[in-house]
Design a protein that fits this description.
The structure is a single chain. By secondary structure, this protein is mainly alpha-helical. It is built from 9 helices and 3 strands. Helix 4 crosses helix 5, helix 6 packs across helix 7 and helix 6 packs across helix 9. It is elongated, with a radius of gyration of 18 Å.
Amino acid sequence: MFGQFFDKMTPQRFAALAPHMQTEALLLAAEVGLAVPVVAASISIPTLEAKRLMCQRHGYRTPEAASNWVDPDRSVDVRSNKMKILSMMLAEGGADGISLSLVEIAERAGIGSTNAPRAMRDLTHAGFIVCIKRGGPHHAAVYRVTEDGIEAVRKARGDR
């Protein structure tokens, strides 16, 4: 079904999509088994650009939606799983990029392995980390702590 949709996707139609729809379209194409280089070529973008778009996370604030993240200025718990992950990533060079699986993140941060995926998703949605390169079955993802993430850790520690 999605393959038929993508057969009708032209470079112009793809370019006209909203950013979140571009990400979704590429992720769905990969999910149904279409090779990223083939899809990228069909919509006239470089493979690396397609991969970058696939790593994008898009957040929405609507009046009806509850906030998923509190402002770090108001409520930062240094014992929280999110802060443990941010602190660990910074200590291990995460400001430049760090390659870790979710299991390794959980082990190194000292949190439960079942809690790591949600904490990482929340950190990404909050803009505290970015996925530079998606992981796969035989390689870990590469993450980088953003300036906002560094600042949140600094405030949580009481640093100036």
